[in-house]
Please model this.
Amino acid sequence: MSTKSNTAETVPTVCRLCIAHCGVLATIEDDNGRRKVTKVTGDPDNPLFKGYSCPKGRALDDLHNHDGRLLNSLKKADDGSFSKISNSDAAIEVADKIKALIDQYGPRSVAIYVGTPNVGYPAAAGMGNAFLRTIGSRMFFTSNTIDQPGKQISLATHGKWLGGEPDFDQADAWLLMGGNPIISKSAGIPGQNPAQKLKEAITRGLKLIVLDPRVSDTARKAHIHLQSRPGEDHSILAGMINIIIAEKLYDQDFVTENTSGFESLKNHVANFTPEYVADRAGVPIDKLFAAARVFANAKIRHANSGTGSSFSMYCNLKEYLLACLNTLCGAYTKAGEKVTRPNAMLPAYTPKAQALGPFKGWGFGEKLRVRGLTDTAAGMPTAALADEILLAGEGQVKALICIGGNPMAAWPDQRKTQQALEKLDLLLTFDVEMSSTARLADYVIACKQTFETPGMSQSGEAIKFFGFGIGFPSAYAQYSPRIVDPPHDSDLVEEWEFFYHMACHLDLSLSYVAFFGAAKYIESPMAMMMLDKNYKPSTEEIYQTICSNSRIPLDEVKKYPHGYIFDSEVFVAPKDADHEERLALADKVMMEQLEEVYAQDYQAMHNTPDFPFRYIPRRHNNFMNSAGRSIKKLNGDKPWNPVWIHPKDMQALDISNGDLVRIATEHDSIPAMVEADDSLRRGVVAMAHAFGGLIDEDHRYKELGSNTGRLIRTDIDYDPITGMPRMGNIPVSITRKK
Ligand SMILES: Nc1nc2c(c(=O)[nH]1)N[C@H]1C(S)=C(S)[C@@H](COP(=O)(O)OP(=O)(O)OC[C@H]3O[C@@H](n4cnc5c(=O)[nH]c(N)nc54)[C@H](O)[C@@H]3O)O[C@H]1N2
Ligand SMILES: Nc1nc2c(c(=O)[nH]1)N[C@H]1C(S)=C(S)[C@@H](COP(=O)(O)OP(=O)(O)OC[C@H]3O[C@@H](n4cnc5c(=O)[nH]c(N)nc54)[C@H](O)[C@@H]3O)O[C@H]1N2
Ligand code: SF4
Ligand SMILES: [Mo]
Model:
């Protein structure tokens, strides 16, 4: 269990910085009566992660202890200066302000935005949601609709196979579109040491197919790499499907038994001939054929995706065609086969060899006042939240509460975002450091972080309901109690407690519901609890409630501090006799979008002489979006984000490594330092996101980096369903700054 020396103790715990949820070992030392973390490493005794960790996780000691950590909550005065405020006073003041705003403008004037750090900490977003429901507002937004919303929209338009997806460790072919899991640990290869897993799989004979305009860390290992033009993934998928149908390589029995719309799909992809696709996407025709044949001819395979393809427009169509590719090939776990992702900390369910048919994906719930957008299966359109704040009139958003998110770093169109945040009557952000959003806030609430709260692996398991091929590939579970104390002289709160205190002050009760998003896939009722003045639970009790219907009881999980793989011998049951739902291969809206794509003048689209380069996003190995940039161990004295350019393009531009350039779109521009990268397709430049300060701080590019969100407009090219704008494949010009 834990090892003790005279001064230090080493304990197993959970890193919840990203969805991988690695089991790690933390060294805890006494710091004048308080437990302090001084080192984090992988945990060799963890049965799933087997000692694996990444640089971000290994910096958790610094993330808890660094000088820039927020130790007290802050309130902004009229002159813009911040002063300390106790969390109890802040909760009362903010609650009164919210009450006044609701009285004057109605409940819709109050919105919540939830960022990524809360994925692994279900108490926070869940209680924020309960608070919003109680005051009568449906304005609950998350980072999901500026991430991969196409995943949930495609579940709604295509349906989901209830037997689940095959095990990567057994597969003989795997396709990855626009993700780089070796770095991100999140897109399509199980996140437990993805580099090692991939190496083992390739040694075993797995054929990896990668779609990426860059020879990414993952593409480097590919058997077939389609180094396509950015933004053409839907053409490639339509082309592959066309080949697979024409050559009759699809699983005809599976298609007949479980799908609808085959003939219509066949007709719609017919235009995407190999010659057309090769020319349009800029890929060799033989590689396109090879990709289709290798995927379709494999016995066990699956296709997955990441953010790169999601950001370059038509995110729903791409995910839809990816789902169709999987379905045509019957790339799923069938009756009698072992389930890859049995539940552990989630309620038990019976996986069946049948389809959950399509369901309504948008056009319900709260309507936005811009661009005809509505609530969706992926959540509310976050790209339109700045407009909801700026647009005067009934329903205007006047108060925004950010739960561990950083709109100034992460929302598209940073200029509009700053205007919106400055216009709010009330901006509150829960954070652990002074983010660029916090600098604009009226209240910055200082929070406890990872090791100061209990941790558990349930979110890492639940992620499987929101996409394909993600989540633990076994009935793995881990729970960790709080292992350190908050820093000396700090006044930190957990986000959920702050909502609870506000509710008590306003004499409201809160109904907390666990995992509302997963209800469709779970047979047992969702766990819920009521909180009011008479009942304040601990976080531990909230977690107990969240796990009250778990297949493996929480008390059982707690017996294994290093994590445990529970009984994973769960098999897919046969299809119910009366089951009629089918996977839809030709959703009307998706087929209309495919027709729209075919009607485009792609040569004109690709040829933009005034903005001759295409900007694409990619992730930084050492930072989790905007978090971690201030930590020396992680930034290596290079806290900025360079623009990566192909050396031959650099030559043509007459620029060298370290030169300062301006990257411009038709609407805005940012400075950046050049770094050569011959892994890029010619004409494509890449830069990591979530850097930069406020909009008048371009001159601090070497200290803060530059914000790629500035290159994005939310009101020109955007997805009509989720509102997500073009966040990749953006035409840009590059000019040297003298
Ligand atoms: N241009 C461009 N824009 C993008 C992307 C892109 O690739 N390019 N990616 C998009 C994607 S995929 C996403 S998910 C979003 C991310 O959008 P966000 O989630 O809004 O952005 P983060 O930078 O992850 O914000 C996390 C904030 O939480 C704080 N934090 C860290 N730990 C804790 C904690 O324990 N508690 C609390 N309360 N706060 C904490 C951090 O200091 C930081 O300020 O950005 C999207 N935006
Ligand atoms: N180290 C680290 N890990 C992270 C994060 C982080 O910031 N840092 N963020 C986390 C979050 S919030 C998320 S959502 C995930 C995202 O995880 P991923 O989606 O794997 O993110 P990236 O590593 O940026 O990989 C995107 C890939 O898409 C490629 N690409 C760009 N444009 C296109 C295109 O048009 N088509 C195709 N086919 N490819 C394209 C890029 O070259 C890049 O290799 O990562 C998570 N994990
Ligand atoms: S991969 Fe994710 S969960 Fe694992 S150590 Fe790194 S940041 Fe933590
Ligand atoms: Mo994300």
